[in-house]
Amino acid sequence: TINTQFPVRTTIVNSGNKTVDNIEVNLLRNGEVVATKSVNTLEPAMEKDVTFSVKEDVFAAGTTVAYSVQTLAEQDEKTNNDMSEEIGVDIVMPSLPIATNLKATTRGGN
Fold first, then answer.
1. Residue 24 pairs with which residues in a beta bridge?
2. Which residue of 18, 48, 51, 96 has the lowest C-beta tally within 10 Å?
3. Helix, strand, coil abundance in the chain, percent, nearest 5
4. Residue 80: C-alpha distances to residues 85, 107, 109 (Å)
5. Among 76, 71, 70, residue whose Cα is nearest residue 19
C-alpha cells in the first residue's frame, strides 16, 4: 500500500572459505540502488539477516516494482552469487479514502 512503510528482508551468506569484512548490501528498486546497509564481518558458512524499510509513493500505485539485493565486498571469493533474483511487488492504493495535504491554521490565538 502506498505511503506505508514495509520491510524488505534478505539473508546474506558467506559461502566462501574466508572471513569477509565490510560487506555493502544494496537494495535495488527496478535496477537502481535505493538503500544501502553495511555488515561488518561474516565468517565462512555464516549468514546474516538484513532488513530495509521501504515506502512507496502515490506515483507507484497500480504498478509492479521489482526489488533485488546486491552484495559488494573486496574479499568476496564468489562474485557470481552477489545479486539476488528480482521479486515483483504490486503497489496498490488503500481501499479507504486517505486525506492528503492537510494544513493547520490558528484562529484567535488558539
1. 38, 72
2. 96
3. 5, 50, 45
4. 12, 64, 65
5. 76
HSE (side-chain half, CA atoms, 13 Å) at 1: 7
Quick one: DSSP state of residue 75? T
Residue 60 three-state SS: helix
**Is pLDDT at 93 greater than 90 in this prediction?**
no
DSSP the chain: -TT-EEEEEEEEE--SSS-EEEEEEEEEETTEEEEEEEEEEE-TT-EEEEEEEEE--GGGTTSEEEEEEEEE-TT-S-GGG-BPPPEEEE----SS----S-----STT-
Amino acid at 86: E
Please state whether the predicted TM-score (pTM) of the whole model is above 0.70: yes
**pLDDT one-digit tens code per residue, 2-27:** 777 889 999 999 998 999 999 999 99
